[in-house]
């Protein structure tokens, strides 16, 4: 099987698996305990925090370990809302956010907050001018993802950050789950107050992530208890997963800037080859997109049928966000960007990773062409 669903999750690197195993076997003490085993565990925790801080360009004290992107997003949005509701109850986000942001904002509306969902252009990109117009005196938070998980569109985070520097009381949260290891992140330069990271998107373990929380920023904790993570995220730390994530970060650093360029060369082959298949429409923008995602549509064809036909030929892709792929409705994200139900219903996402090659991309294009040619006559017959 050729795995082309790396935006949903990645295969953990063998060295990461080994680190997790070793941590479970050796560093099983509670980091809060005062005995030798506890101190050993605490030392591993400190080392991992330092690795994450160096990678993101922040202080170790600004790293909060969470259970992943969903918790990080919830902790950021709800933490700001609860802490600063006396200042204002207005949140701004976009219509193309991951459910872990979009659905949280919907929940905040039930709690009496007002939320503005910014529209996007045909590329799935928000306009900074629209954001500026949406800002109100009671706005307390802007939450915009860095890379869209379905289209691969890169949002203008630097420009948004520059705008928000004129509004020092508005906090800026960025969901960077899809961008870590693919695009640079400049926390300080872009004026980011809160940033969400998930390890299983870059060959680390599942169930572990990071919330970068700017120094001095006070938020209401999502979880109360033993006061771990500087009092913001209670619960005994998941040390094996944290150690595994630190190893995954080190491996990203070792690969260097060449890997995103290599991924981009693979997706370019995919874009060009798939665009030549009759009836194919490439949805991912040609400029300002992440290097690892290509989203295409075959109007008139059901995405699920094509997905399973490709699987029979040994290729694994997805139809939309893995968190909502079983819902029999067109993608909210694609509808917001494309404004075309047929394109949204017939879209598949190909997302490449460190194990994929250009030869695999070429073979996939040939397989996709065969699948489309075999399926299309049956679709017409049904119509």
Largest sheet: 7 strands, mixed
Let me know the number of strands: 12
Q: Order of strands across the biggest sheet?
A: 2-8-7-6-5-3-4
Tell me the Rg in angstroms: 21 Å
Describe how the helices and strands are arranged.
Layout (H helix, E strand, L loop, with lengths): L1 E2 L10 H13 L9 H21 L6 E4 L2 H16 L5 E5 L4 H12 L3 E5 L9 H7 L4 E5 L13 H8 L6 E5 L18 E5 L10 E5 L25 H17 L2 H18 L5 E2 L10 E5 L5 H10 L2 E2 L15 H7 L2 H5 L1 E5 L6 H25 L1
Helix pairs in contact: 1-7, 2-7, 3-4, 8-12, 9-12
Question: How would you describe the overall organization of this protein?
Answer:
It contains 12 helices and 12 strands. The chain is an alpha/beta fold. The protein has a 7-stranded mixed beta sheet, sandwiched between helices. Strands 9-10-12 form a 3-stranded antiparallel beta sheet. A two-stranded parallel sheet has the order 1-11.
Features of this protein?
single chain, 383 residues, alpha/beta, seven-stranded mixed beta sheet, three-stranded antiparallel beta sheet, 12 helices, 12 strands, 42% helix, globular
Summarize the entry for a quick read:
This protein has 383 residues and is an alpha/beta fold.
